[in-house]
Write a structure and sequence with these properties.
The complex is a heterodimer.
Chain A: H1 20-24, E1 31-32, E2 34-40, E3 43-51, E4 54-57, E5 60-69, E6 72-80, E7 85-91, E8 97-102
Antiparallel strand pairs in A: 1-8, 2-3, 3-4, 5-6, 6-7, 7-8
Chain B: E1 2-7, H1 10-18, E2 27-30, E3 40-43, H2 45-49, H3 58-64, E4 69-72, H4 75-90, E5 95-100, E6 103-107, H5 114-129, E7 133-138, H6 141-149, E8 156-158, H7 164-168, H8 181-189, H9 195-200, H10 203-210, H11 212-222, H12 227-230, E9 238-249, H13 252-272, E10 275-286, E11 290-302, H14 305-316, E12 326-338, H15 347-366
Parallel strand pairs in B: 2-4, 7-8
Antiparallel strand pairs in B: 1-6, 1-7, 2-3, 5-6, 9-12, 10-11, 10-12
Helix pairs in contact in B: 4-5, 10-11, 13-14
Amino acid sequence: MRHSSFKPEARWDKPPMPNDADRQNPDCINEQVQVLALFKSAKILPRLFIWKNRIYKIKRVTYNWQERFGRETVSFFSVSTGTDLYQISFNNTSYIWKIDKIIG
Amino acid sequence: MILHVDMDAFFASIEQAINPRLKGKPLIVGSRNSKMHTVVCAASYEAKAAGIDSGMASAEAFKICPGLEFVAAEQGKYIWTSRQIFKLLKGFGFEVLYASIDEFQMDIMGYPDPDSLAKRAQGRIYEEFGITASVGVAKNWLLSKLASKLNKPNGVTVLTSANLEEVLSRFPASKICGVGKNTALLLEGLGVKTCLDLYQKSAQFLEHNLGKYGLNLFISMHSTDSFDSLKGPDEPKSIGHSYTLPRAVSNPQFIRAWLRTLSEMVARRLRQDNWESIAVHLWLNGPEIGNFGAQKTFQQPINDGFEVYKRCLKIMAKLGPQTPLVRAFGVSCSGLSQTAYARPLFKEQKRRGDLLKALDSINSRFGDNSIYPAVITLAQ
């Protein structure tokens, strides 16, 4: 059992193919949205987003995580409006918010 | 004393935390998006109760449980959560090591109340991520890992000298990490049925019947660990990647494109950690060839994906001129040594080295696979 040389990334033998994210998610929306968010104690707390001229009030952030894409870091949020669940993301380099997909 | 944290149905629990509607439902996380042509890489406890487990074909899982919920795996969130849990555990002030993406070990040598520490760790993980973990504490890594599996989900098991034998007597020897189906059958034939039977066997007995592995098993079961005693040279023996296709294929272009893809992935990891390899191992699985695996050692060490790929083709040539039906591939490199700088002798060698540097620097800056050999698109 090898411990200290373990990297969580190495567990994945799924090759990240070109355009993989889009290929894997047929439900991918990937559109820019406007977001009202609170940046507090090094945390980002999205409160509402505007998509296609409609306001979606966020009742709960169910989960959040970050991923690095080269030098860029993207923060992902799964957010509940009470009736529906969406995934939105914030690019920490370009400061662009996007709606990635409707989870359910 | 080692405290082993084993996350409960890790990927499935994260998906249930993301989408609370999936909580309490049988759920599988598939390695690919195509629901009926993938492999279960995680199952929720509700799915496990129906007889579904990791490694099963998703089509089989849906046969067992037609009402199953399905989510395609997205590695980023699991890796991030794993790293955050690792940081959180480090916050307790003990040395922490990864055992796998969803298992962590803490060296808590001398800590007076491991039970409360285990519960605090569980509580913090739940508070931060909304997912549960099972914890085992014992005198060494092997027994602590075993203990973490005895009371799942969300359980704590502390093995002390007072309860060790009683607890071990209640579980089959196959519960111990490393004792697979075949070893368990062999042991059963020798009258070793429970973990306690195995624990009580002598080093000579285990070595005689299981060889070097038996002796290692004895040492692992009886040692009193601190991480210092576990640390050997921190160098990987090999670096590899594998992939299973939804169905077997015989298209030579497609198969070669996959070999190139895996070779590039392996070579990129070699270069990231400054390794070179002299031995390439190719593994193929298919209905006609079964499990085919062969290794070839070369004189010149490499860390270029194209070179790894060429060596794979040489190994594959052993199968004959006809391309077989292939369902799964694996490419790994061993015989690793640290890259030593040597001024390239030939112009072409220098050109190739410069090209790899440029490709790596583009991929590091803009993200993996921002630039890649065109041939790997044939694998899509």
